Amino acid sequence: MSIPSIDVRKLTPTIGAEIFGVDIGHGVSKGQYDEIRQALLDNLVIFFRDQDMTLDQHKAFGRLFGKLHIHPEPAFPVAGHPEVITIKADENSMRVAGEVWHSDVSCDAEPPMGSILHIHNVPENGGGDTLFANMYAAYEGLSETMQSFVGGLSAMHDGNAAYRDKPAVPDPDKVYPRAEHPIVRTHPETGRKALFVNRYFTEGIVGLSVEESNALLEILYRHIEKPEWQCRFKWQPNSVAFWDNRCAQHNAIWDYFPQRRFGYRVALCGEKPV
Amino acid sequence: MIMERFDFLVRSCKLADTLIDVQKLTPSIGAEIFGVDLGAEISARQFQAIHQALLDHQVIFFRDQKMSVDQQKAFVRQFGELHIHPGPRFPIDGHPEILGIWADENSKRVSGEEWHSDVSCEPKPAMASMLYIHEVPKNDGGDTLFASMYAAFEALSDPFKRFLSGLTALHTGAAAYGGGRSPIAATNIPSAEHPVIRTHPETGRQALYVNRYFTSHIAQLSRSESNAVLEYLYGHAEKVEFQCRFKWRANSVAFWDNRCVQHKVIWDYFPYRRNGHRITVSGDRPFHQI
Protein backbone atom coordinates (compact mmCIF):
# COMPACT_ATOMS: atom_id res chain seq x y z
CA MET A 1 0.00 0.00 0.00
CA SER A 2 1.42 3.31 -1.04
CA ILE A 3 1.32 6.11 1.49
CA PRO A 4 -0.83 9.00 0.22
CA SER A 5 1.31 12.00 -0.61
CA ILE A 6 -1.55 14.49 -0.20
CA ASP A 7 -4.12 14.98 2.53
CA VAL A 8 -7.74 15.13 1.31
CA ARG A 9 -10.38 16.50 3.70
CA LYS A 10 -13.95 16.46 2.49
CA LEU A 11 -16.07 19.60 2.91
CA THR A 12 -19.44 17.88 2.62
CA PRO A 13 -20.45 14.28 1.92
CA THR A 14 -21.58 15.32 -1.56
CA ILE A 15 -19.05 17.75 -2.97
CA GLY A 16 -15.79 19.51 -2.24
CA ALA A 17 -12.51 18.64 -0.53
CA GLU A 18 -9.58 20.62 0.72
CA ILE A 19 -6.19 19.27 -0.28
CA PHE A 20 -3.22 19.74 2.00
CA GLY A 21 0.43 18.82 1.67
CA VAL A 22 1.17 20.02 -1.85
CA ASP A 23 2.65 23.18 -3.32
CA ILE A 24 1.03 23.19 -6.75
CA GLY A 25 3.10 26.06 -8.16
CA HIS A 26 6.42 24.43 -7.45
CA GLY A 27 6.39 20.99 -8.95
CA VAL A 28 3.95 18.20 -8.43
CA SER A 29 5.20 14.63 -8.36
CA LYS A 30 3.61 11.91 -10.50
CA GLY A 31 2.10 10.36 -7.37
CA GLN A 32 0.73 13.69 -6.25
CA TYR A 33 -0.64 14.38 -9.72
CA ASP A 34 -2.49 11.05 -9.75
CA GLU A 35 -3.93 11.67 -6.31
CA ILE A 36 -5.01 15.22 -7.15
CA ARG A 37 -6.70 14.00 -10.30
CA GLN A 38 -8.47 11.27 -8.38
CA ALA A 39 -9.49 13.74 -5.67
CA LEU A 40 -10.99 15.98 -8.36
CA LEU A 41 -12.95 13.09 -9.86
CA ASP A 42 -14.14 12.00 -6.43
CA ASN A 43 -15.02 15.42 -5.03
CA LEU A 44 -15.84 17.48 -8.17
CA VAL A 45 -14.12 20.54 -6.74
CA ILE A 46 -10.91 20.63 -4.75
CA PHE A 47 -9.35 23.46 -2.84
CA PHE A 48 -5.77 24.35 -1.95
CA ARG A 49 -4.72 26.92 0.62
CA ASP A 50 -1.70 29.23 0.81
CA GLN A 51 -0.54 28.70 -2.76
CA ASP A 52 1.97 31.30 -3.86
CA MET A 53 2.38 31.07 -7.63
CA THR A 54 3.11 33.19 -10.67
CA LEU A 55 0.95 33.18 -13.78
CA ASP A 56 3.47 30.87 -15.47
CA GLN A 57 3.35 28.46 -12.55
CA HIS A 58 -0.46 28.62 -12.54
CA LYS A 59 -0.50 27.78 -16.25
CA ALA A 60 2.10 25.03 -15.81
CA PHE A 61 -0.04 23.39 -13.10
CA GLY A 62 -3.10 23.62 -15.37
CA ARG A 63 -1.21 22.10 -18.31
CA LEU A 64 -0.55 18.96 -16.27
CA PHE A 65 -4.27 18.25 -16.64
CA GLY A 66 -4.76 19.22 -20.27
CA LYS A 67 -4.53 21.85 -22.91
CA LEU A 68 -5.42 25.36 -21.73
CA HIS A 69 -8.66 26.88 -23.00
CA ILE A 70 -8.89 30.36 -24.51
CA HIS A 71 -11.96 32.22 -23.21
CA PRO A 72 -14.21 33.61 -26.00
CA GLU A 73 -14.96 36.86 -24.18
CA PRO A 74 -12.54 37.68 -21.37
CA ALA A 75 -13.74 40.73 -19.46
CA PHE A 76 -10.19 41.55 -18.36
CA PRO A 77 -7.60 39.99 -20.67
CA VAL A 78 -4.06 39.65 -19.36
CA ALA A 79 -1.33 40.90 -21.71
CA GLY A 80 0.91 38.06 -22.88
CA HIS A 81 -1.27 35.40 -21.23
CA PRO A 82 -4.27 34.66 -23.48
CA GLU A 83 -5.01 31.51 -21.46
CA VAL A 84 -5.52 33.52 -18.28
CA ILE A 85 -8.61 35.53 -17.42
CA THR A 86 -8.70 38.07 -14.63
CA ILE A 87 -11.40 37.79 -12.05
CA LYS A 88 -11.88 41.12 -10.37
CA ALA A 89 -14.49 43.26 -8.77
CA ASP A 90 -14.11 46.54 -6.97
CA GLU A 91 -15.82 49.84 -6.25
CA ASN A 92 -16.24 50.49 -9.99
CA SER A 93 -17.85 47.17 -10.85
CA MET A 94 -21.32 47.27 -12.34
CA ARG A 95 -21.52 43.49 -12.31
CA VAL A 96 -19.37 40.45 -11.67
CA ALA A 97 -19.06 37.34 -13.79
CA GLY A 98 -20.77 34.16 -12.67
CA GLU A 99 -23.32 35.51 -10.22
CA VAL A 100 -25.76 32.95 -11.60
CA TRP A 101 -25.37 29.18 -11.29
CA HIS A 102 -23.42 27.93 -14.28
CA SER A 103 -20.90 25.58 -15.76
CA ASP A 104 -18.10 27.57 -17.41
CA VAL A 105 -18.60 28.50 -21.07
CA SER A 106 -21.17 25.74 -21.62
CA CYS A 107 -22.08 27.65 -24.79
CA ASP A 108 -18.89 26.32 -26.40
CA ALA A 109 -19.21 23.24 -28.59
CA GLU A 110 -16.43 21.81 -26.44
CA PRO A 111 -16.79 23.52 -23.05
CA PRO A 112 -13.79 23.60 -20.72
CA MET A 113 -13.52 20.45 -18.65
CA GLY A 114 -12.18 22.20 -15.61
CA SER A 115 -11.19 25.60 -14.27
CA ILE A 116 -8.50 26.61 -11.80
CA LEU A 117 -9.06 29.88 -9.95
CA HIS A 118 -6.31 31.44 -7.87
CA ILE A 119 -7.58 34.26 -5.68
CA HIS A 120 -5.01 36.84 -4.63
CA ASN A 121 -7.13 39.34 -2.74
CA VAL A 122 -10.27 38.68 -0.79
CA PRO A 123 -12.79 41.35 0.20
CA GLU A 124 -12.28 42.76 3.66
CA ASN A 125 -15.86 42.19 4.73
CA GLY A 126 -15.50 38.42 4.65
CA GLY A 127 -17.71 38.11 1.54
CA GLY A 128 -17.04 36.65 -1.90
CA ASP A 129 -17.62 32.97 -1.17
CA THR A 130 -18.27 30.62 -4.06
CA LEU A 131 -20.92 27.91 -4.05
CA PHE A 132 -20.39 24.65 -5.90
CA ALA A 133 -23.10 22.10 -6.70
CA ASN A 134 -22.83 18.43 -7.58
CA MET A 135 -24.68 17.70 -10.84
CA TYR A 136 -24.36 13.92 -10.39
CA ALA A 137 -26.30 14.25 -7.15
CA ALA A 138 -28.80 16.57 -8.79
CA TYR A 139 -29.40 14.02 -11.54
CA GLU A 140 -29.62 11.15 -9.08
CA GLY A 141 -32.06 13.17 -6.97
CA LEU A 142 -34.60 13.25 -9.79
CA SER A 143 -37.33 10.63 -9.93
CA GLU A 144 -36.70 7.81 -12.40
CA THR A 145 -39.50 9.15 -14.55
CA MET A 146 -37.92 12.57 -14.76
CA GLN A 147 -34.48 11.03 -15.32
CA SER A 148 -35.69 9.16 -18.35
CA PHE A 149 -37.61 12.15 -19.71
CA VAL A 150 -34.70 14.58 -19.54
CA GLY A 151 -32.28 11.81 -20.50
CA GLY A 152 -33.72 11.88 -24.00
CA LEU A 153 -33.53 15.65 -24.47
CA SER A 154 -30.91 18.17 -25.47
CA ALA A 155 -30.68 21.91 -24.92
CA MET A 156 -29.26 24.90 -26.75
CA HIS A 157 -26.62 26.90 -24.88
CA ASP A 158 -25.88 30.43 -26.05
CA GLY A 159 -23.15 32.88 -25.03
CA ASN A 160 -25.04 35.86 -26.34
CA ALA A 161 -27.03 36.73 -23.22
CA ALA A 162 -24.04 36.19 -20.96
CA TYR A 163 -21.46 38.05 -23.02
CA ARG A 164 -23.21 40.53 -25.30
CA ASP A 165 -23.27 43.50 -22.94
CA LYS A 166 -20.11 42.58 -21.11
CA PRO A 167 -17.44 44.57 -22.99
CA ALA A 168 -17.18 48.26 -22.20
CA VAL A 169 -17.85 48.91 -25.88
CA PRO A 170 -20.21 46.17 -27.11
CA ASP A 171 -19.58 44.96 -30.65
CA PRO A 172 -22.93 44.40 -32.34
CA ASP A 173 -21.37 42.21 -35.03
CA LYS A 174 -19.61 39.86 -32.65
CA VAL A 175 -20.85 36.29 -32.89
CA TYR A 176 -20.87 34.41 -29.59
CA PRO A 177 -20.57 30.66 -29.21
CA ARG A 178 -23.72 28.58 -29.37
CA ALA A 179 -24.02 24.84 -28.99
CA GLU A 180 -26.48 22.03 -28.42
CA HIS A 181 -25.68 19.64 -25.57
CA PRO A 182 -27.52 16.72 -23.98
CA ILE A 183 -29.36 17.67 -20.77
CA VAL A 184 -27.91 14.61 -19.09
CA ARG A 185 -24.22 14.39 -19.72
CA THR A 186 -22.11 11.30 -19.15
CA HIS A 187 -18.82 12.17 -17.54
CA PRO A 188 -16.08 10.83 -19.84
CA GLU A 189 -13.86 9.71 -16.97
CA THR A 190 -16.21 8.50 -14.26
CA GLY A 191 -18.99 7.30 -16.57
CA ARG A 192 -21.53 8.86 -14.20
CA LYS A 193 -24.51 10.89 -15.41
CA ALA A 194 -24.82 14.58 -14.56
CA LEU A 195 -27.34 17.32 -15.28
CA PHE A 196 -25.90 19.76 -17.78
CA VAL A 197 -28.21 22.77 -18.04
CA ASN A 198 -27.65 26.08 -16.31
CA ARG A 199 -29.37 29.43 -15.91
CA TYR A 200 -26.48 31.39 -17.37
CA PHE A 201 -26.09 29.78 -20.78
CA THR A 202 -28.96 27.40 -21.45
CA GLU A 203 -31.44 28.98 -23.81
CA GLY A 204 -34.03 26.27 -24.33
CA ILE A 205 -34.77 22.59 -24.72
CA VAL A 206 -34.82 21.29 -28.27
CA GLY A 207 -38.18 19.92 -29.40
CA LEU A 208 -40.27 21.49 -26.63
CA SER A 209 -42.39 24.62 -26.93
CA VAL A 210 -40.84 27.72 -25.35
CA GLU A 211 -43.29 27.50 -22.44
CA GLU A 212 -42.71 23.81 -21.81
CA SER A 213 -38.98 24.42 -22.03
CA ASN A 214 -39.14 27.31 -19.57
CA ALA A 215 -41.24 25.26 -17.18
CA LEU A 216 -39.00 22.21 -17.35
CA LEU A 217 -35.79 24.24 -17.08
CA GLU A 218 -37.19 26.05 -14.06
CA ILE A 219 -37.93 22.69 -12.43
CA LEU A 220 -34.37 21.56 -13.14
CA TYR A 221 -32.73 24.82 -12.03
CA ARG A 222 -34.56 24.86 -8.72
CA HIS A 223 -33.69 21.25 -8.23
CA ILE A 224 -30.04 21.88 -9.10
CA GLU A 225 -29.88 24.69 -6.57
CA LYS A 226 -30.87 22.62 -3.55
CA PRO A 227 -28.36 23.04 -0.70
CA GLU A 228 -28.27 19.25 -0.30
CA TRP A 229 -25.80 18.98 -3.16
CA GLN A 230 -23.74 22.08 -2.47
CA CYS A 231 -20.65 23.22 -0.67
CA ARG A 232 -19.67 26.78 0.08
CA PHE A 233 -16.05 27.81 -0.07
CA LYS A 234 -14.63 30.73 1.85
CA TRP A 235 -11.57 32.13 0.13
CA GLN A 236 -8.38 33.39 1.73
CA PRO A 237 -5.56 35.12 -0.12
CA ASN A 238 -3.75 32.47 -2.23
CA SER A 239 -6.57 29.95 -2.06
CA VAL A 240 -7.05 27.90 -5.22
CA ALA A 241 -10.19 26.12 -6.38
CA PHE A 242 -10.05 23.53 -9.13
CA TRP A 243 -13.45 22.35 -10.36
CA ASP A 244 -14.75 19.92 -12.91
CA ASN A 245 -17.22 21.71 -15.19
CA ARG A 246 -18.52 18.42 -16.51
CA CYS A 247 -20.26 17.57 -13.26
CA ALA A 248 -20.25 20.74 -11.13
CA GLN A 249 -21.89 24.13 -11.35
CA HIS A 250 -20.84 27.14 -9.36
CA ASN A 251 -22.16 30.52 -8.31
CA ALA A 252 -19.97 33.46 -7.27
CA ILE A 253 -21.49 35.59 -4.53
CA TRP A 254 -21.06 39.33 -4.90
CA ASP A 255 -21.81 40.45 -1.39
CA TYR A 256 -18.78 42.67 -0.95
CA PHE A 257 -19.36 45.78 -3.05
CA PRO A 258 -17.52 48.19 -3.01
CA GLN A 259 -14.67 46.05 -1.75
CA ARG A 260 -12.12 44.39 -3.95
CA ARG A 261 -11.64 40.78 -4.90
CA PHE A 262 -8.99 39.80 -7.39
CA GLY A 263 -7.56 36.64 -8.94
CA TYR A 264 -6.68 34.73 -12.07
CA ARG A 265 -8.31 31.76 -13.70
CA VAL A 266 -7.13 29.27 -16.26
CA ALA A 267 -9.40 26.70 -17.83
CA LEU A 268 -8.69 23.31 -19.37
CA CYS A 269 -9.99 22.35 -22.78
CA GLY A 270 -12.78 19.83 -22.73
CA GLU A 271 -14.55 17.53 -25.12
CA LYS A 272 -17.96 17.60 -26.70
CA PRO A 273 -20.52 16.56 -24.06
CA VAL A 274 -22.14 13.18 -24.66
CA MET B 1 -69.04 30.27 -56.16
CA ILE B 2 -70.22 26.88 -57.33
CA MET B 3 -68.42 25.24 -54.44
CA GLU B 4 -70.08 27.61 -51.99
CA ARG B 5 -73.50 26.71 -53.34
CA PHE B 6 -72.59 23.05 -53.14
CA ASP B 7 -71.43 23.46 -49.51
CA PHE B 8 -74.68 25.19 -48.69
CA LEU B 9 -76.66 22.35 -50.18
CA VAL B 10 -74.64 19.77 -48.29
CA ARG B 11 -75.20 21.65 -45.06
CA SER B 12 -78.91 21.93 -45.72
CA CYS B 13 -79.13 18.25 -46.46
CA LYS B 14 -77.23 17.45 -43.26
CA LEU B 15 -79.57 19.69 -41.35
CA ALA B 16 -82.57 17.95 -42.78
CA ASP B 17 -80.92 14.64 -42.24
CA THR B 18 -79.95 15.13 -38.61
CA LEU B 19 -82.88 17.30 -37.67
CA ILE B 20 -80.71 19.49 -35.51
CA ASP B 21 -78.94 22.73 -36.26
CA VAL B 22 -75.41 22.87 -34.85
CA GLN B 23 -73.65 26.23 -34.60
CA LYS B 24 -70.08 26.12 -33.39
CA LEU B 25 -69.04 28.57 -30.67
CA THR B 26 -65.29 28.40 -31.23
CA PRO B 27 -63.03 26.23 -33.40
CA SER B 28 -61.84 24.23 -30.37
CA ILE B 29 -64.94 23.64 -28.31
CA GLY B 30 -68.62 24.30 -27.92
CA ALA B 31 -71.71 24.39 -30.13
CA GLU B 32 -75.23 25.61 -29.74
CA ILE B 33 -77.91 23.19 -30.87
CA PHE B 34 -81.14 24.49 -32.25
CA GLY B 35 -84.29 22.75 -33.34
CA VAL B 36 -84.62 20.33 -30.45
CA ASP B 37 -87.09 20.20 -27.58
CA LEU B 38 -85.35 18.18 -24.90
CA GLY B 39 -88.53 17.84 -22.87
CA ALA B 40 -90.34 16.09 -25.70
CA GLU B 41 -89.63 12.63 -26.97
CA ILE B 42 -86.83 12.72 -29.51
CA SER B 43 -86.31 10.32 -32.40
CA ALA B 44 -83.46 7.83 -32.46
CA ARG B 45 -81.89 9.80 -35.29
CA GLN B 46 -82.11 13.04 -33.38
CA PHE B 47 -80.61 11.39 -30.34
CA GLN B 48 -77.78 10.08 -32.49
CA ALA B 49 -77.19 13.54 -33.91
CA ILE B 50 -77.08 15.09 -30.44
CA HIS B 51 -74.74 12.38 -29.24
CA GLN B 52 -72.48 12.99 -32.23
CA ALA B 53 -72.55 16.74 -31.59
CA LEU B 54 -71.46 16.12 -28.01
CA LEU B 55 -68.54 13.98 -29.22
CA ASP B 56 -67.59 16.52 -31.87
CA HIS B 57 -67.92 19.70 -29.81
CA GLN B 58 -67.36 18.36 -26.27
CA VAL B 59 -69.94 20.70 -24.81
CA ILE B 60 -73.29 21.52 -26.40
CA PHE B 61 -75.83 24.14 -25.45
CA PHE B 62 -79.58 24.39 -25.85
CA ARG B 63 -81.72 27.50 -25.38
CA ASP B 64 -85.27 28.02 -24.17
CA GLN B 65 -85.88 24.49 -22.93
CA LYS B 66 -88.91 23.59 -20.85
CA MET B 67 -88.35 20.37 -18.95
CA SER B 68 -89.71 18.88 -15.78
CA VAL B 69 -87.28 17.08 -13.48
CA ASP B 70 -88.55 13.77 -14.84
CA GLN B 71 -88.16 14.90 -18.43
CA GLN B 72 -84.59 16.05 -17.77
CA LYS B 73 -83.79 12.67 -16.20
CA ALA B 74 -85.43 10.83 -19.08
CA PHE B 75 -83.37 12.70 -21.65
CA VAL B 76 -80.06 12.21 -19.85
CA ARG B 77 -80.77 8.50 -19.19
CA GLN B 78 -80.45 7.88 -22.91
CA PHE B 79 -76.70 8.52 -22.49
CA GLY B 80 -76.27 6.10 -19.61
CA GLU B 81 -76.97 5.38 -16.01
CA LEU B 82 -77.47 8.46 -13.83
CA HIS B 83 -74.73 9.26 -11.36
CA ILE B 84 -75.45 9.95 -7.69
CA HIS B 85 -73.21 12.73 -6.39
CA PRO B 86 -71.19 11.69 -3.30
CA GLY B 87 -72.02 14.85 -1.38
CA PRO B 88 -74.70 17.16 -2.75
CA ARG B 89 -74.88 20.51 -0.96
CA PHE B 90 -78.45 21.10 -2.11
CA PRO B 91 -80.21 17.72 -2.38
CA ILE B 92 -83.58 17.66 -4.13
CA ASP B 93 -86.21 15.68 -2.28
CA GLY B 94 -87.10 12.42 -4.04
CA HIS B 95 -84.54 12.97 -6.81
CA PRO B 96 -81.11 11.76 -5.62
CA GLU B 97 -79.82 11.97 -9.23
CA ILE B 98 -80.39 15.71 -9.32
CA LEU B 99 -77.70 17.99 -7.97
CA GLY B 100 -79.16 21.32 -6.96
CA ILE B 101 -77.06 24.30 -8.06
CA TRP B 102 -77.79 27.33 -5.94
CA ALA B 103 -76.13 30.62 -5.10
CA ASP B 104 -77.69 33.70 -3.54
CA GLU B 105 -77.12 36.49 -1.05
CA ASN B 106 -76.37 33.95 1.70
CA SER B 107 -73.73 32.00 -0.23
CA LYS B 108 -70.26 31.89 1.25
CA ARG B 109 -68.89 30.06 -1.78
CA VAL B 110 -70.04 28.33 -4.92
CA SER B 111 -68.94 24.93 -6.23
CA GLY B 112 -66.64 24.63 -9.23
CA GLU B 113 -64.94 27.99 -9.14
CA GLU B 114 -61.68 26.18 -9.91
CA TRP B 115 -61.14 24.50 -13.27
CA HIS B 116 -62.15 20.85 -13.00
CA SER B 117 -63.65 17.79 -14.56
CA ASP B 118 -66.66 16.65 -12.50
CA VAL B 119 -65.84 14.28 -9.63
CA SER B 120 -62.53 13.18 -11.18
CA CYS B 121 -61.74 12.02 -7.62
CA GLU B 122 -63.98 8.99 -8.15
CA PRO B 123 -62.65 5.70 -9.55
CA LYS B 124 -65.27 5.98 -12.28
CA PRO B 125 -65.82 9.70 -12.73
CA ALA B 126 -68.92 11.13 -14.31
CA MET B 127 -68.96 10.74 -18.08
CA ALA B 128 -71.09 13.78 -18.82
CA SER B 129 -73.08 16.41 -16.97
CA MET B 130 -76.13 18.35 -17.96
CA LEU B 131 -76.87 21.63 -16.26
CA TYR B 132 -80.26 23.22 -16.66
CA ILE B 133 -80.29 26.77 -15.38
CA HIS B 134 -83.64 28.05 -14.22
CA GLU B 135 -82.70 31.49 -13.04
CA VAL B 136 -79.77 33.71 -14.06
CA PRO B 137 -78.33 36.49 -11.92
CA LYS B 138 -79.74 39.93 -12.56
CA ASN B 139 -76.35 41.51 -13.19
CA ASP B 140 -75.61 39.31 -16.26
CA GLY B 141 -72.88 37.40 -14.42
CA GLY B 142 -72.55 33.69 -13.86
CA ASP B 143 -71.04 32.60 -17.18
CA THR B 144 -69.35 29.22 -17.36
CA LEU B 145 -66.05 28.55 -19.13
CA PHE B 146 -65.37 25.25 -20.84
CA ALA B 147 -61.96 24.10 -22.06
CA SER B 148 -61.08 21.36 -24.52
CA MET B 149 -58.59 18.94 -23.03
CA TYR B 150 -58.09 17.43 -26.48
CA ALA B 151 -56.85 20.81 -27.65
CA ALA B 152 -54.69 21.17 -24.52
CA PHE B 153 -53.12 17.77 -25.16
CA GLU B 154 -52.62 18.37 -28.85
CA ALA B 155 -50.86 21.69 -28.26
CA LEU B 156 -48.11 19.99 -26.24
CA SER B 157 -44.84 19.15 -27.99
CA ASP B 158 -44.20 15.54 -28.94
CA PRO B 159 -41.54 14.96 -26.26
CA PHE B 160 -43.84 16.38 -23.60
CA LYS B 161 -46.74 14.23 -24.81
CA ARG B 162 -44.52 11.15 -24.61
CA PHE B 163 -43.35 12.13 -21.13
CA LEU B 164 -46.89 12.47 -19.82
CA SER B 165 -48.25 9.44 -21.61
CA GLY B 166 -47.04 6.86 -19.15
CA LEU B 167 -47.89 8.80 -16.01
CA THR B 168 -50.75 8.55 -13.55
CA ALA B 169 -52.03 11.09 -11.04
CA LEU B 170 -53.82 10.89 -7.72
CA HIS B 171 -57.14 12.67 -7.52
CA THR B 172 -58.85 13.36 -4.22
CA GLY B 173 -62.02 15.07 -3.14
CA ALA B 174 -60.36 16.34 0.04
CA ALA B 175 -60.04 19.97 -1.04
CA ALA B 176 -63.46 20.06 -2.70
CA TYR B 177 -65.49 18.07 -0.19
CA GLY B 178 -63.44 17.91 3.02
CA GLY B 179 -63.24 20.32 5.91
CA GLY B 180 -67.00 20.75 6.15
CA ARG B 181 -67.39 21.92 2.57
CA SER B 182 -69.86 19.11 1.95
CA PRO B 183 -71.85 16.59 3.98
CA ILE B 184 -69.34 13.82 3.12
CA ALA B 185 -67.58 12.33 6.15
CA ALA B 186 -63.79 12.68 6.09
CA THR B 187 -63.39 8.90 5.89
CA ASN B 188 -65.66 8.68 2.83
CA ILE B 189 -64.02 11.28 0.66
CA PRO B 190 -63.40 9.65 -2.71
CA SER B 191 -59.95 9.33 -4.20
CA ALA B 192 -58.57 7.57 -7.26
CA GLU B 193 -55.55 7.22 -9.51
CA HIS B 194 -56.05 8.07 -13.17
CA PRO B 195 -53.81 8.38 -16.24
CA VAL B 196 -52.54 11.93 -16.85
CA ILE B 197 -53.45 11.48 -20.50
CA ARG B 198 -56.84 9.89 -20.90
CA THR B 199 -58.01 8.16 -24.05
CA HIS B 200 -61.62 9.00 -24.82
CA PRO B 201 -63.44 5.66 -25.01
CA GLU B 202 -65.71 6.77 -27.85
CA THR B 203 -63.57 9.05 -30.01
CA GLY B 204 -60.21 7.43 -29.29
CA ARG B 205 -58.69 10.91 -28.96
CA GLN B 206 -56.21 11.77 -26.20
CA ALA B 207 -57.08 14.37 -23.58
CA LEU B 208 -55.21 15.97 -20.70
CA TYR B 209 -56.81 14.67 -17.51
CA VAL B 210 -55.47 16.59 -14.51
CA ASN B 211 -57.24 19.50 -12.85
CA ARG B 212 -56.64 21.98 -10.03
CA TYR B 213 -59.71 21.00 -8.07
CA PHE B 214 -59.09 17.28 -7.59
CA THR B 215 -55.58 16.30 -8.73
CA SER B 216 -53.08 16.10 -5.89
CA HIS B 217 -49.92 14.76 -7.48
CA ILE B 218 -48.33 12.68 -10.21
CA ALA B 219 -47.48 9.27 -8.84
CA GLN B 220 -44.20 8.71 -10.67
CA LEU B 221 -42.63 12.07 -9.79
CA SER B 222 -41.22 13.54 -6.60
CA ARG B 223 -43.48 16.01 -4.83
CA SER B 224 -41.59 19.06 -6.07
CA GLU B 225 -41.34 17.75 -9.65
CA SER B 226 -45.04 16.93 -9.57
CA ASN B 227 -46.03 20.35 -8.21
CA ALA B 228 -44.04 22.09 -10.91
CA VAL B 229 -45.25 19.87 -13.75
CA LEU B 230 -48.88 20.14 -12.63
CA GLU B 231 -48.65 23.89 -12.27
CA TYR B 232 -47.32 24.07 -15.79
CA LEU B 233 -50.10 21.81 -17.10
CA TYR B 234 -52.82 23.76 -15.30
CA GLY B 235 -51.54 27.00 -16.76
CA HIS B 236 -51.41 25.35 -20.17
CA ALA B 237 -54.91 23.84 -19.87
CA GLU B 238 -56.29 27.27 -18.96
CA LYS B 239 -55.21 28.97 -22.16
CA VAL B 240 -58.02 30.91 -23.74
CA GLU B 241 -57.25 29.26 -27.07
CA PHE B 242 -58.84 26.04 -25.82
CA GLN B 243 -61.94 27.64 -24.30
CA CYS B 244 -65.43 28.84 -24.94
CA ARG B 245 -67.47 31.00 -22.59
CA PHE B 246 -71.18 30.43 -22.28
CA LYS B 247 -73.61 33.12 -21.24
CA TRP B 248 -76.68 31.58 -19.67
CA ARG B 249 -80.24 32.68 -20.02
CA ALA B 250 -83.14 31.30 -18.03
CA ASN B 251 -83.86 27.80 -19.36
CA SER B 252 -80.50 27.35 -21.07
CA VAL B 253 -78.98 23.89 -20.94
CA ALA B 254 -75.33 22.88 -21.16
CA PHE B 255 -74.31 19.28 -21.65
CA TRP B 256 -70.61 18.55 -21.40
CA ASP B 257 -68.35 15.53 -21.71
CA ASN B 258 -66.19 15.29 -18.58
CA ARG B 259 -63.81 12.89 -20.30
CA CYS B 260 -62.37 15.64 -22.48
CA VAL B 261 -63.62 18.92 -20.96
CA GLN B 262 -62.85 20.99 -17.91
CA HIS B 263 -65.07 23.81 -16.79
CA LYS B 264 -65.06 26.67 -14.37
CA VAL B 265 -67.97 28.67 -13.05
CA ILE B 266 -67.66 32.37 -12.51
CA TRP B 267 -69.15 33.79 -9.31
CA ASP B 268 -69.30 37.42 -10.25
CA TYR B 269 -72.91 37.98 -9.26
CA PHE B 270 -73.02 38.07 -5.48
CA PRO B 271 -75.52 38.80 -3.92
CA TYR B 272 -77.74 37.84 -6.85
CA ARG B 273 -79.33 34.46 -7.22
CA ARG B 274 -78.57 31.75 -9.74
CA ASN B 275 -80.06 28.30 -9.61
CA GLY B 276 -80.61 25.18 -11.61
CA HIS B 277 -80.45 21.41 -11.70
CA ARG B 278 -77.54 19.24 -12.76
CA ILE B 279 -77.85 15.64 -13.80
CA THR B 280 -74.79 13.54 -14.37
CA VAL B 281 -74.20 10.41 -16.40
CA SER B 282 -72.06 7.71 -14.79
CA GLY B 283 -68.75 7.01 -16.45
CA ASP B 284 -66.06 4.40 -17.01
CA ARG B 285 -62.72 3.95 -15.39
CA PRO B 286 -60.33 6.27 -17.27
CA PHE B 287 -57.61 4.54 -19.27
CA HIS B 288 -54.75 5.43 -21.53
CA GLN B 289 -54.17 3.67 -24.80
CA ILE B 290 -51.66 4.76 -27.41
Provide a short characterization of the protein structure.
The complex is a heterodimer of chains A (274) and B (290). Chain A is 20% helix and 27% strand.
Q: What letter string, H or E per element, gives the SSE order of chain A?
A: EEHEHEEEHHEHEEEEHEEEE
- As for the CATH topology of chain A, it is Double-stranded beta-helix
Percent range for helical residues of chain B?
25-40%
Strand order of the largest sheet of chain A: 1-2-3-13-5-15-4
The number of helices of chain B is 7
The percentage helix of chain A is 10-25%
Task: List its salient traits.
A: alpha+beta, Double-stranded beta-helix, 7-stranded mixed beta sheet, B: alpha+beta, 15 strands, 26% strand
Describe this structure in words.
The complex is a heterodimer of chains A (274) and B (290). Chain A is 20% helix and 27% strand. With 274 residues, chain A is of the alpha+beta class. In chain A, 43% of the residues are buried. Chain B is α+β, with helices and mostly antiparallel strands. Chain B has one domain (63-281): Double-stranded beta-helix, CATH 3.60.130. Helices cover 25% and strands 26% of the residues of chain B. The longest helix of chain B has 17 residues, at 2-18. The model of chain B has no long low-confidence stretch (mean pLDDT 90). The interface between A and B is medium-sized, with 19 and 19 residues.
